[in-house]
Structures are given as C-alpha cells and as structure tokens.
C-alpha cells in the first residue's frame, strides 16, 4: 500500500478524498477529547452534548456517526427513554446506488401508494363547471339589475339625466300655460 492510499484510511474506513480523510481525523480528535472529559454516567450531560453535536453538525463522517450511535446506546443504558433520543441525521443520499438495484426498486414500488387520478379529475371538472355557472349568473344579474354597475353606469346616468330634463320641460310648459291662463 503506498503513502497516498494510507492517507485515505482513517479508523478502518477508506475515504474517497484526502479532504474527507482529514475531516475524519479531526472528528477522531474531537471524539478523543470528548472521551476524556465527558461523564458517561450522567445522562443529562450526555443528552446535552449529543443534541448539541447534532444541531451543530459536528460529526459528518462515518467515524462521527458511529460515535453518535455509541452515545445513543449509552443513554439507553442509563435509562433515557428511546423516544427522547433524537435519531442520528444522515446528510448524504444513497439513492443513486439503490435506483439501479432491481430488488430495492421493486420493494420501493410496492410501498408507494397508488393514486387514483380519475376521481380527482371528475371532482376538478365538476368544480370548474360550477364556477363557470356562478360567473355566468353574476354577469346575468348585473346586466338585468336596475342599480348602475361598472358595466352599465354610463347608460344609467344618461337615462337619469334625460328623465330629469323631460320632467323639467313638462313643468316649464305647465308653468307657461298657467301664466297664460292668468294673463287672459
């Protein structure tokens, strides 16, 4: 094994890049430091450190993840209920490897819920028809209404002024006829 390949191996894992291997080495140092200073008999402190490590994403490599798993087991041994222990988050994806595996793909397909789109389509069409009918009814009501709307306000105002003008003309004529009758 040459020097470059040895640089990629940390804690029994062979990493793909030197950067990943160096990250794992740093995590190993953090773990050694925690091992020296952390009291594993106190479940509250253990839970506090565990949650802080998860929240701050302190551990990213398999070495750190296995240490978090060790902390989980220690908390369970100290009597902490498993429901209170948060799961270890994995920030990587593994789907590109599983999509090519036919047995995994069949298993995933069997778990998927098959959606019936026909019922949703019929419901959608019915709702759309009802909305179109409601809009047509609103337009019909606004056109037949005596109250001016934005559609027929000009016609309504012109009609109102022409009625006033006609009424004034009739009053003027009645007043002139009355004046003539008085003058005679």
Q: Any overview of this molecule?
A:
By secondary structure, the chain is mostly helical. It folds into two domains: 88 residues, no CATH class; 67 residues, no CATH class. Helix content is 69%, strand content 2%. The protein is built from eight helices and two strands. It has a two-stranded antiparallel ribbon with strand order 1-2. A hairpin with a 2-residue loop joins strand 1 and strand 2. Helix 2 packs parallel to helix 4 and helix 3 packs antiparallel against helix 4. The protein starts with a helix and ends with a helix. The mean pLDDT is 83.
Spatial gap, N to C terminus? 138 Å
The pLDDT mean sits at: 83
Tell me the strand percentage band: under 5%
In helices, the fraction of residues equals 55-70%
Count of helical stretches:
8
Let me know the number of strands. 2
Identify the strand order in the major beta sheet. Answer: 1-2
The count of domains is: 2
One letter per element, helices H and strands E, the order comes to: HEEHHHHHHH
Taking pLDDT < 50 over at least 5 consecutive residues as the criterion, the unreliable ranges are: none
Which structural class matches the secondary elements?
mainly alpha
Largest sheet: 2 strands, antiparallel
Query: What general outline do the C-alpha atoms trace?
Result: rod-shaped
Return Rg in Å: 42 Å
List the helices and strands and how they pair.
Elements: H1 3-7, E1 9-10, E2 13-14, H2 18-37, H3 43-55, H4 62-77, H5 95-98, H6 102-111, H7 117-144, H8 153-183
Antiparallel strand pairs: 1-2
List keywords for this structure.
two-stranded antiparallel sheet; single chain; mainly alpha; 184 residues; rod-shaped
